[in-house]
Structures are given as structure tokens and as C-alpha cells.
Write a structure and sequence with these properties.
Elements: H1 15-26, H2 28-41, H3 49-61, E1 65-68, E2 77-83, E3 87-93, H4 123-144, E4 148-155, H5 158-161, H6 163-169, E5 178-185, E6 189-191, E7 194-195, E8 197-206, H7 222-236, E9 245-252, E10 264-273, H8 276-297, E11 300-309, H9 316-329, H10 336-349, H11 355-362, H12 367-374, E12 394-395, H13 401-405, E13 410-416, H14 427-432, H15 436-458, H16 460-474
Parallel strand pairs: 3-4, 3-5, 5-13, 7-12
Antiparallel strand pairs: 1-2, 2-4, 6-13, 8-10, 8-11, 9-10
Helix pairs in contact: 1-4, 1-15, 2-3, 2-4, 4-15, 7-8, 9-15, 11-12, 15-16
Length: about 500
């Protein structure tokens, strides 16, 4: 039994939820050990073999039918229990970020292995909490005899790989009535916002080498082509929608010899926009610039599409139920030692630690709600649930949860698992990943997700309403995976 997570008494909560929540508490130690083990593996996109084994072993132990290599994605899998409708999916992630290795529970940056990977986005928690929710829902189905199917989806490569988009292309999420997920953070809320769709593409230029001093006229510089392309894209920025984002990295500049006309260069682009069709339009314009650069330099261009993901459509019906469950459960309680740790981390971030709170306050619907949110400014650990707002903010980041949301009603919560103001993708997140803050938030999230699924099973009208909203949000469109045929998942840093 994990202490510090408040559960409601039976008169307040439905009996069914209590069955699931008790099961989550019962299995908490095993789940937390799994989270810590995955934290230690810290495997990046599509290389998460050890993490997959940890999660699949747990699923099999709990009586789930496990299918690996799901949708022909090596580290994707699913665990299924039950039969009949509704079919409810929980989304789990488990990939890490490169270069963020960090000692656990430290208040200063200190890598255990320089340059190694670390769970700087909390996906060790994300995957295990969603599995815990699936275990709780399975127990509920067993005890009540209710009709329903629970599926845990092991989703690799969210960080720079769009694993769920590859899974969606392979039909993994077809037939779901609803999908539920969550993400670690510094604030607890039900997400109703959107995120940007994106394409990630290599532009590879092939030229002709020559002696840069003795015979430069015989060479054709691939590096010149890459630089000209980048300049062209800079001019493009003024002529795309303001919500768009275009980032790039020169991944090969042709070598280390300035006295050689560089015969090869490549640049990796990430193109983002609020809608799939907008990304596609900008992508074609970037392609024209790349083609122009190749013409100017008399080099050959190869366009290598890496991955893409769709914009997120948050289902507000399910999100409201997530919010209800988060509120019903109440936030975890922390020990004095845990709060001292949170204080050290939060204060170490500096004044920027207030940005997430202020952003949330500005999205409140009333002055009273805004004042309530801002009243928590200066706290080291946010223990409140942000007010529900059906009109969520647009995130200028991207998530492959978007591709699931185009296949079925999808909602996610954010739950405080790290200190106030902790920036994502940071050593501070890695440091907190095995702490009591993380553990208690993980269990809290699992209970909220399981409770939401039970609400939908016990009240089928919620699923009907969620599907009606889903169809409305589609606006008559259908899902078209942004990833072209023949494109395969690739590990971080690998080439085609």
C-alpha cells in the first residue's frame, strides 16, 4: 500500500472505482519498482528492448494477452484483457532522451555517465502508471462481471520518433471506443488543448569534391547548397502562418577539411503547424527551396522523410471526467523530506519557475479562478487541480498522441510528479524520476485514469457523447497518416 495518496471512502466513491483503486494500491510496489527499473534503462526511441521486457512481463503476470511487434514496430506492443464493448485503451510511453543522464534525487546537475541517456520527460512514470490503470480496470471487470475490453498500448519512440503514428498507420488503434493517457508535469490538470502537427525530414545534398585552392572550379559544394537552403527558409518564415514553427540542425557539414570542396552535406528539418494540411503545405514550400539550392549549386538533392505526427484533438467529454476523478481523489500528501527536496529543485530553477503557473492562470475562465491559481505562487509542489476549461491552450510542441486522437476519442491528464516550475527535458526531471514526488504522482494518475474508464463503462452515454464530439471535431475529415508508405521507424541518430 502506497501511503500519501488520498482515496475516497465508499459513500463518496462508487464501489467499482474502489475495487480498481484498491488493486492499484495493492500492486503499487511492483509498479513503482518497474518505473525505477525503466528509469535505469533510459533507452531512446525504438531501442527500448529492456523497458519493453519489464512492461510485457508485468502484463503477462497480470493475465493480459500480450502481442509484441505491434503494427510491425519492433518495440511496440499491446496487452489485452476482457471481451465486448466498450473497448478502452491506455497509452503508455517509455523512451528516454539522449544526453540527459543524471544522478537520482540530486539537487545539482551530476551525471552518472557523461553523455548517456536519461528520462528527462518522465516516460518511465508515464508507461507504468498507464499499465497500473489497466491493471485496476481489469480487476474491476473481473469483480463486477461487466462487459468491456481493456488494452494497454506500449508506445515507443514518442521523443523524435512518432511511434504512435507508425502504430496508427498499421491500424493499431482501430476499434477503440476511447483512449486515455497522461503525462508527468509540475501542475495537475485535465488537458483540453491542442498541439502542433509536424514533419521531420532530412535534406541531403550530393556535390563534387575538388581542391578548394588549386581547382575550386571543378567542385560543386554540397555545403553551399545546405547553407543556401537554410537562408531561403529564413526568408520563408515571414510568409507562413505565425503559429508555424520551422527548426533545423546541420547534421553533416561535409567534413573537417576547409581546403576540400565538400561533396556531401545534410540538414535535418522539423516543420510544425496547427493542422496536418498546413504542415504539408509548408513542407512542399521548403522542398522547393531545397530544390532551388540544389539548382544554384549544381548538386543533387535527396529528400529523406523521417517521421510525422498529427495535431492533437483533445476530447473534452473524457477530459472532464478525468478532471472529476483528479478532484475526487485529492492530491498526494508528501513527507517533510520530500517537500525539502522539492523546494531545493524549485528554487534552483530561478524566477522562470513561475511561468507554468502564470500560463495556467491566464487560461482561467473567471477572475476568481485566476486568483485561486495565482494564490499558489511560491509553493514548491503544486497540490491543487487546475480549474477545468473546455477551451484549452495550444501547445507549440508536438505529440504523437495526436494520431490516436484522430482514430478515437482521446484525452489526457497532466499530473504533478516534479517540483513547481521544473522545466521539461531537463536534468531536474531525471533527478526527480525515482523520488517520492514521482512515485506518489504516478499512483495518483493511475487511479484517475482507471476511475475515468469505469465512469464510461458504468454510464455508456459518456462514450456516446465523446464519440459525437469526436465526429464534430473531425469536421468531415478522416485520418490520413502523415507518414508516407515505405518510411520505417528509425532509432535516434540512425540513417535510412
Amino acid at each position: 500500500m502506497v501511503t500519501g495518496v488520498q482515496t475516497c471512502a465508499l459513500p463518496i466513491c462508487k464501489m467499482g472505482k474502489q475495487i480498481a483503486w484498491d488493486e492499484i494500491d495493492k500492486k503499487a510496489e511492483e509498479i513503482l519498482n518497474a518505473s525505477d527499473e525503466i528509469w535505469g534503462c533510459a533507452e531512446t526511441a525504438f531501442q527500448e528492448d529492456q523497458s519493453v521486457k519489464v512492461l510485457c512481463d508485468l502484463l503477462r503476470k497480470e493475465g493480459f494477452e500480450v502481442e509484441e511487434n505491434l503494427a510491425d514496430v519492433k518495440t511496440a506492443f499491446k496487452g489485452t484483457y476482457g471481451s465486448g464493448k466498450p473497448v478502452i485503451g491506455f497509452l503508455g510511453e517509455f523512451d528516454a532522451l539522449s544526453g540527459l543522464n543524471q544522478e537520482a534525487c540530486a539537487t545539482e546537475k551530476k551525471a552518472m555517465v557523461d553523455g548517456a541517456s536519461g528520462h528527462g520527460c518522465g516516460h518511465n512514470m508515464l508507461g507504468t502508471a498507464s499499465l497500473s490503470a489497466a491493471i485496476g480496470l481489469k480487476r474491476y471487470l473481473e469483480e463486477t462481471g461487466k462487459s468491456g475490453t481493456v488494452i494497454y498500448f506500449g508506445c515507443p519512440g514518442e521523443e523524435g520518433g512518432s511511434g504512435k503514428a507508425f502504430m496508427a498507420k498499421g491500424g493499431a488503434f482501430e476499434g477503440l471506443d476511447a483512449a486515455i493517457t497522461w503525462h508527468p508535469g509540475d501542475l495537475t490538470r485535465a488537458d483540453t488543448g491542442s498541439s502542433l502537427a509536424n514533419y521531420q525530414v532530412y535534406y541531403k545534398f550530393y556535390g563534387t569534391s575538388a581542391h578548394a585552392g588549386g581547382a575550386p572550379h571543378l567542385g560543386r559544394s554540397a555545403l553551399d547548397a545546405a547553407e543556401l537552403m537554410n537562408v531561403g527558409v529564413q526568408f520563408l518564415r515571414e510568409h507562413v502562418i505565425p503559429e508555424a514553427r520551422i527548426h533545423y540542425a546541420i547534421t553533416n557539414s561535409g567534413g573537417y577539411s576547409p581546403n576540400v570542396v565538400q561533396p556531401y552535406a545534410e540538414v535535418l528539418y522539423l516543420i510544425r503547424a496547427p493542422k496536418n494540411k498546413q504542415v504539408e503545405e509548408i513542407y512542399h514550400r521548403v522542398n522547393k527551396i531545397a530544390e532551388g539550392a540544389a539548382h544554384m549549386t549544381e548538386t543533387r538533392l535527396e529528400i529523406d522523410f523521417v517521421k510525422g505526427c498529427s495535431n492533437l484533438m483533445s476530447n473534452r467529454v473524457i477530459a472532464k471526467k478525468l478532471w472529476d476523478n483528479l478532484t475526487e481523489l485529492g492530491a498526494p500528501e508528501y513527507t517533510e523530506e520530500e517537500m525539502e527536496f522539492a523546494k531545493a529543485i524549485s528554487e534552483g530553477v530561478g524566477d522562470s519557475r513561475f511561468e507554468s503557473l502564470e500560463k495556467m492562470a491566464n487560461n482561467c475562465q473567471t477572475k476568481e479562478e485566476k486568483a485561486e491559481v495565482l494564490s499558489h505562487k511560491g509553493e514548491s509542489m503544486y497540490r491543487f487541480v487546475a480549474p477545468f476549461n473546455p477551451n484549452g491552450l495550444m501547445s507549440f510542441g508536438s505529440t504523437d498522441v495526436g494520431d490516436v486522437s484522430w482514430n478515437c476519442p482521446t484525452a489526457q491528464a497532466y499530473v504533478a510528479t516534479w517540483a513547481a516550475g521544473t522545466p521539461g527535458h531537463s536534468w531536474q526531471v531525471v533527478s526527480q524520476g525515482k523520488s517520492g514526488l514521482a512515485h506518489k504522482g504516478l499512483i495518483y494518475a493511475a487511479k484517475a485514469m482507471a476511475g475515468t474508464a469505469i465512469d464510461m463503462i458504468e454510464d455508456p452515454s459518456l462514450i456516446d457523447a465523446a464519440k459525437a464530439e469526436f465526429l464534430e471535431d473531425l469536421e468531415g475529415d478522416t485520418y490520413h497518416c502523415p507518414i508516407p508508405d515505405g518510411c520505417r521507424p528509425r532509432a535516434i541518430g540512425t540513417k535510412k
